[in-house]
Design brief:
heterotrimer; A alpha/beta (about 400); B mainly alpha (about 325); C mainly alpha (about 300); A: alpha/beta; Rossmann fold; four-stranded antiparallel sheet; 13 helices; about 30% helix; disordered N terminus; B: mainly alpha
Chain lengths: ~400, ~325, ~300
């Protein structure tokens, strides 16, 4: 998978959308310094000091460009899902702003209801995202009816969308969620998200719970829909292969903060942040000649309640220096379009660049040699039966 | 853990305050002038003055409440209109009698309830299960005061085995734990035991069936543990919830004994309540209800704490 | 707010003909109808309700006609198939007419508590936060009383009478229903489909109406039906104590009270009203159990 050159799929349709306000250079969605802390109950009776909080999202800023697919990766607990909910305004941020096509979300020029017509989300759990008591046509038609479309027209649109996602409306529209398979339900969720004709679709682990074959079908479907409707995607996943396949740009999160952003090929082939490097190295190899023997990332991620001082990653970083525990890294752009939050790339931070980490180093190449050739020629001892045929 | 206990106890305080306030308001929701409701028309001036002192009707409502509560916390619940004796004294005497009866009923109910529940849970969907389920439905659907009447008819009137009413051959005065006195307790206690029996049986059946269906039981049996050993495990897992239910039932019976006590003329708090209602003796009514309700809240608290201590799965945040 | 979406990228033909699956409610009814115990119970209840409604027309005798000569005649006396009570009135007629009040006092408070309690619980559950805390703490204070005690306390303070008894019983059941309602609503509120509905810009009212209610009413209703038998017993208990229905109105609980003196002379007659209360109560419980089982089946 890593050998194919990624072809950007920024579709012209996204640019020519009649609802476009800011022009092609304006990012579709800009998140500025989003902050969300969840307060916890105090343990015991200690009433001194501040209440403990989970710092789920701690100052996150990024842009989503029109027509692109922005992938978001990170470990569990890094704040990906919370960020998605903040972008959808399902949870309101404590601090920070969202700017959609140049207009601040929640302001008089773009009230929340208007914003919700243009941004939609597909959730991970396909079953719990659908009302078990509603037929799927009603579920899909619900959104438009909220915004004034008549029941009849909404149903017509629902049927059309169901057909487009590959479900024959005559057979499926009257069914209930429990009468569909996981892959079919996820298609319904996609249809529901599209019913309001959004410009931005957030896919929060949307394919993670599906079987691999179904996953492939759904990914292809998403690709087609993006082209046909001129959509922009935010694709959140923990599966690095899938993210690489679908994304134009990739954003890496760690413990509530953005650590690296850049074009997918650059980030995957030449990561700058030590965390990204370790993450990519931890992708298990499918090549028996290149087995991963040692885990590149050790330990559990530290607690989001009490993150380490300075750079949050320094406790697990192979290249950490004392200054990393004292200074909080700023987000810099060592190459145009490729940003990273690491003291190594920050000029005048006090970090001493060492020879083993002087430049962006590629992840070890993973080649997929034909298996039987490798077995037959290089490793005669392992499969003696195979040679005998 | 201590923190949890303290926090839990602290939570009970506003509830107790709310309960006290409700009891206090009983007098005020009665139709008509509260003073008229509390005193008979021909009450003496002294009595009227006492009432005014106790309730402070000329002051504002919050002041009245505080006044009344303050006195209650010092053990002074007013004076009964009918008997002119202090309410606290009457209530405490009656509480003892009711407690005995409720305790006995709960124990009987718990014992048989567990028995039926275990049998039903172990032998699911057999005739024993159906019989036990049937018994528990009966327990919950019976109007227990009617059952009391039927028991009186059968055991007292027809068979002449047990006395019908009262708490002792010489009235309610002196209770002794001898057969003469216990004879009077049997019918009311057994009648009252049907309710907890039904509920305990249902709960235990569900618990046992659930535990037996869990995989760790299969694991135990596969490793050769005797059936008795498995049984001990089941008991250990059921115990916290079953005991909690028993505690709650005890509290419920303490508060809800009025009907049985009326049928059997058992001199407990229920009987007192009955008196108070008929004689429109509101101080007595108020005092009795306050004591019973607070008992119930305290019992709930105790049960909660006990369950947390016994059941390691409950989070003690 | 514009009501029309911008020109669409897709054409919108008319809706196609669709095969609709059976709804959840229909499935529940189907399973319930196949449950023999529940259906027997339902039949018994129906019979009792019909007798109660048509009592004035099918009673054999006047339930209020007293007669000193005909006091406490045994069962099987010609003209009085179930005997007479302590004032000479025909038991059968009194039982039939008494069913009206007894059944009414069983169902009405639960119905009212269902409406009020669900309202409070759903509001608390959906709104969350401060509103939830305030509402549920108030509910907790009422819940802290044993139900019998609360019913008697309120009735005792308000005085005897049907309306007062109705009010007390409703107050007793509201907290119980509110608790269930709040618990279920909070669960539903957390689900992804409610989030999706919020994400489509619907108002809270619309979401509660179209998404929350359908998923929440079922469990609350099942719980409420199990309270009917409790309400009947409690109501007749109140009448037994003289706090509910006033004589000479026939009501099963009141009849048990006035017939107490007869347990030595005519025990079977004295026990009759209780038998009816028991039968009705068991039937409602069986029906409630059947309903619960019908709803529980995982689809």
């Amino acid at each position: 998978m890593s050998t194919a050159k990624h072809i950007p799929n920024i579709t012209p349709a996204a640019m020519a959308d009649p609802r476009d306000v800011g022009g092609p250079r304006q990012p579709l969605l800009r998140a500025q310094n989003l902050l969300k802390h969840f307060p916890l109950k105090r343990k015991g009776l200690d009433f001194r000091g501040p209440k403990p909080v989970v710092r789920a999202v701690d100052g996150v800023s990024f842009d989503i460009k029109k027509g692109e697919t922005l992938g978001v990766v990170g470990e569990s607990g890094c704040g990906k899902s919370t960020t998605a909910r903040l972008l959808m305004q399902l949870t309101l941020q404590d601090k920070g702003e969202l700017i959609f096509d140049g207009q601040t979300v929640g302001s008089s020029s773009l009230p929340l209801r208007e914003f919700r017509r243009q941004t939609q989300m597909v959730f991970q759990d396909s079953y719990s995202s659908l009302n078990p008591r509603m037929t799927i046509e009603d579920s899909v038609a619900f959104g438009p009816t909220v915004h004034g479309v008549t029941q009849r027209a909404a149903l017509a649109r629902a049927h059309d969308l169901l057909a487009r996602v590959g479900l024959d409306p005559a057979r499926f529209a009257g069914r209930y969620p429990h009468e569909l398979s996981g892959g079919q339900r996820q298609r319904v969720n996609i249809a529901r998200a599209l019913a309001l004709e959004p410009r931005l679709v957030i896919l929060d682990e949307a394919v993670s719970a599906l079987d691999k074959s179904v996953e492939a079908q759904v990914l292809n479907l998403l690709e087609d829909l993006k082209r046909d409707f001129g959509l922009t995607y935010l694709f959140i996943s923990h599966d690095l292969h899938v993210v690489r396949y679908v994304s134009d740009r990739v954003l890496v999160m760690y413990l509530g903060q953005v650590v690296e952003v850049g074009p997918a090929d650059q980030v995957f082939d030449a990561p700058r942040h030590p965390y990204t490097r370790a993450l990519l190295q931890s992708m298990p190899s499918t090549d028996p000649l290149q087995r991963t023997t040692e885990a590149p990332l050790s330990g559990d991620p530290p607690n989001p309640i009490d993150p380490p001082p300075g750079c949050r990653f320094h406790t697990r970083c192979a290249f950490a220096q004392p200054v990393c525990g004292q200074q909080v890294p700023q987000f810099v752009e060592p190459a145009p379009g490729h940003g990273v939050a690491c003291l190594r790339w920050q000029p005048e931070s006090g970090y001493e660049p060492m020879p083993d980490f002087p430049r962006p180093s590629p992840a070890p190449a993973k080649s997929l040699m034909p298996l039987n050739a490798a077995v037959a020629s290089e490793m005669p001892d392992i499969f003696p039966e195979a040679r005998r045929g | 853990m201590l923190a949890y206990l303290i926090r839990r106890a602290g939570y009970a305080l506003p509830i107790m305050l709310g309960v006290s306030f409700l009891c206090f308001m009983l007098v005020h929701i009665a139709p008509g002038d509260p003073l008229v409701a509390i005193l008979p028309a021909d009450a003496s001036i002294d009595l009227q003055k006492q009432m005014m002192k106790l309730y402070g009707f000329d002051r504002s409502l919050p002041e009245q409440f505080f006044h009344w509560l303050w006195r209650a916390m010092h053990g002074d619940l007013g004076t009964s209109i009918a008997t002119s004796r202090p309410v606290t004294q009457e209530v405490m005497k009656a509480v003892g009698n009711t407690f005995m009866l409720a305790m006995m009923a709960t124990l009987i109910g718990f014992f048989f309830g567990c028995l039926f529940g275990f049998v039903a849970g172990y032998f699911r969907n057999s005739w024993a299960d159906r019989a036990a389920s049937f018994m528990s439905v009966i327990g919950v659907s019976l109007p227990h005061y009617w059952l009391g009447m039927v028991m009186v008819i059968i055991f007292s009137s027809q068979l002449m085995w047990l006395p019908a009413t009262g708490a002792g051959p010489d009235g309610s005065g002196n209770w002794k734990w001898d057969i003469e006195h216990i004879k009077y307790m049997i019918l009311p206690a057994v009648t009252m035991s049907f309710i907890p029996m039904g509920i305990v049986a249902r709960t235990v059946r569900a618990l046992v069936a659930d535990i037996l269906s869990q995989e760790f039981v299969i694991g135990l049996r596969a490793r050769g543990l005797s059936e008795f050993g498995v049984f001990k495990h089941v008991v250990k897992n059921c115990a916290p919830t079953a005991l909690a239910v028993m505690g709650l039932q005890l509290g419920y019976l303490l508060g809800g004994s009025i009907l049985i006590e009326t049928v059997f003329s058992w001199p407990g708090t229920g009987f007192l309540l009955n008196q108070a209602i008929f004689q429109r003796d509101l101080p007595l009514l108020q005092g009795t209800i306050l004591v019973l309700a607070l008992f119930f809240v305290a019992l709930n608290l105790l049960v909660d704490i006990l369950q947390t201590v016994l059941d390691p799965r409950i989070e003690r945040a | 707010m514009s009501a029309v979406l911008p020109p669409s990228a897709m054409p919108t033909p008319a809706p196609v003909a669709v095969v609709r699956s059976r709804s959840h409610g229909a499935n529940v009814m189907r399973r319930l109808l196949r449950n023999p115990i529940a259906m027997t119970a339902a039949a018994v209840i129906l019979l009792l309700v019909l007798v109660a409604i048509f009592a004035p027309w099918i009673m054999p005798a006047d339930p209020f006609a007293t007669s000193m000569f005909k006091r406490l005649k045994p069962i099987g006396t010609p003209g009085f198939p179930l005997g007479t009570d302590e004032l000479g009135r025909d038991m059968l007629s009194r039982l039939m007419l008494g069913g009206r009040l007894s059944l009414f006092m069983g169902i009405a408070p639960v119905l009212m508590a269902f409406v009020i309690g669900s309202g409070i619980g759903i509001l608390a559950g959906y709104a969350g936060g401060g509103i939830n805390t305030v509402l549920m703490r108030c509910v907790d204070v009422l819940y802290a009383f044993p139900s019998v005690l609360l019913a008697i306390a309120l009735s005792g303070a308000l005085g005897a009478g049907i309306t007062n008894a109705l009010v007390s019983l409703t107050v007793v059941f509201v907290p119980q229903i509110a608790r269930i309602a709040e618990s279920v609503t909070t669960q539903v509120r957390r689900s992804d489909y409610v989030d999706a509905a919020r994400a489509s810009g619907a108002s809270a009212f619309t979401i509660v109406h179209r998404h929350v209610l359908g998923n929440v009413i079922g469990p609350i209703f099942v719980y409420a039906t199990s309270l009917i038998s409790v309400s009947m017993i409690l109501a007749s208990g109140l009448s037994f104590l003289g706090l509910g229905v006033k004589p000479p109105q026939p009501e099963w609980g009141l009849m048990l009270n006035t017939l107490r003196t007869a347990i030595y002379s005519q025990p079977w007659i004295a026990a009759l009203p209780g038998v009816l209360i028991f039968v009705t109560s068991v039937s409602f419980n069986m029906l409630a159990d059947g309903l619960r089982t019908a709803m529980e089946v995982k689809q």
